[in-house]
Amino acid sequence: MSQIWIETGCNRPLTGRIEIMAGRLPYPLTLTGDGIVLREWRSDDLDDLIDLLDEPEIARWTPMPSPFDVEAGIAYLKRSHQGRVSGSRIQLAITADGGRPLGEVLLFGVDLGLKEAELGYLVGKDHRRRGLASGSLALLSQYARSTLALSRLLLRIDPRNTASTAVAQRCGYRLTGEPPILQEGPYGSSRLDTWELVEGQAGTRRDRLKNVAARRYGRRT
Description:
The chain is of the alpha+beta class. Helices cover 29% and strands 27% of the residues. It is built from seven helices and ten strands. Strands 1, 2, 3, 4, 5, 6, 7, 8, 9 and 10 form a ten-stranded mixed sheet that branches. The two termini are 32 Å apart.
């Protein structure tokens, strides 16, 4: 397991577990480990964000608008900032050194009762096959389990997206066998399988069906 260096708004390393007060996730946040720096999105990332997300392969597997233009980029950064300030999600740019964004990793849909949340990730076409997706997912997953004390982490992946399923497998996630979730996107619909990373024994079937993230997936932003 890699070591994580965590910086909070006080610009100090944070160790041990923290409570998610009233459902609010820590902000701002920087996670560092294994040659990867996950940092907050900034307004001056707009051009790089458009380069990352204006790509058919990303639009194929996500509900991103296509084409992803300046207007879409501004709206995306605004929603990201609102979600971070409100503490409803973690949404960080993937970088090698804290500089240029190479992708993105997210944690959202937190259910404090079930101690679970959903994660997502993407890497720009020019930065793939470098281990950035698996490294970033592992980094955020470790933070979610060790610091946020979440015991069940979820991914939603179309089985045709073999690159993404390979990342999930490398990071220890396993298929749950739950019914697929329908997601509409600019290139048609996708049927998303649920993957999980669970601390200890897996939850019951009833707990899985109660999962708030699954029921609300189609309305996420």
